[in-house]
Write a structure and sequence with these properties.
- The chain has 91 residues and is of the alpha+beta class.
- The protein starts with a helix and ends with a helix.
- The longest helix has 12 residues.
- The protein has four helices and four strands.
């Protein structure tokens, strides 16, 4: 992971970090999924912090929201969007 995500991983002591936008049904579904699994998350909204979008896309290669990072291990791990996170958590 690169600088922005590593900084957020150190700053936020939650299970997941989720980069979102305001009117995103997949973001809503991802938040619901994490809540159902009783997993904590910090939401960083690109509409509130638009300068972060470019950095997160550059670091992950993921151009749509949500961008979900598993922050539970020693190193943060990029999971993907809602579909990838749903598969990841329901293995």
């Amino acid at each position: 992971m690169a600088e922005t995500i590593l900084r957020h991983a150190a700053e936020f002591e939650t299970d997941f970090i989720m980069y979102t936008s305001t009117f995103c049904p997949y973001c809503t579904a991802a938040k619901r999924l994490l809540k159902q699994k009783d997993l904590s998350f910090t939401e960083v909204n690109f509409d509130v912090e638009p300068d972060l979008r470019f950095a997160v896309v550059k670091e992950t290669g993921h151009r749509t929201v949500p961008v979900i990072i598993d922050n539970r291990g020693e190193q943060p791990m990029f999971i993907g969007g809602f579909d990838e996170t749903n598969r990841y958590l329901n293995k």
